[in-house]
Amino acid sequence: MPIFEFICNECGCEFEKLVMKSSENNEIQCPKCHSSNLEEKVSGFASVSTNGGGGASVCTPSGG
Ligand SMILES: [Zn+2]
Fold first, then answer.
1. CA 41 – ligand 1 centroid, Å
2. pTM of model > 0.90
3. pLDDT grade, residue 45 (50/70/90)?
4. Could you tell me if residue 63 is inside a domain?
5. Residue 12 counted as domain residue
6. Are 40 and 28 contacting, i.e. CB atoms less than 8 angstroms apart?
7. 3: pLDDT strictly greater than 70
8. pLDDT higher for 36 or 26?
9. How far does residue 34's CA lie from ligand 1's centre (Å)?
10. Higher-confidence residue: 34 or 47?
11. How many Å lie between the centroid of ligand 1 and the Cα of residue 44?
12. C-beta pairs of 49-58 under 8 Å, 24+ apart in sequence
């Protein structure tokens, strides 16, 4: 999904913007103070645990 998160360095407002082209982010302004001093928020990629081949996952039962 081409949605980028931006953080305004002026008022600290966080908002999402649908950016089609990477060069279009130059026209993005803060919806609150309309400032162009924005910072692109990099959303951390969710680490997906991939199991190589068929392997039985070991799960230790918590018991006491
Ligand atoms: Zn702002």
1. 14
2. no
3. low
4. no
5. yes
6. no
7. yes
8. 36
9. 6
10. 34
11. 23
12. none
Which residues have a beta carbon within 5 Å of ligand 1, which is an ion? 8, 10-11, 13, 30, 32-33, 35
* Cα 27 to averaged position of ligand 1 atoms, centre (Å): 14
From the number of C-beta atoms within 10 Å of its C-beta (0-12, 13-18, 19+), residue 13 rates as middle
**Is 13 inside a domain boundary?**
yes
Q: What is the pLDDT of residue 46?
A: 56
Residue with tokens 């908002």: 15
Q: Is 10 inside any structural domain?
A: yes
**Domains identified in the chain, total number:** 1
Is the pLDDT at 53 greater than 70? The verdict is no
Ligand 1 centroid vs 19 CA: distance in angstroms?
A: 18
Domain of 28, in residue numbers:
3-41
CA of 15 to the centre of ligand 1 (A): 9
Q: Are 3 and 42 in contact (CB under 8 A)?
A: no
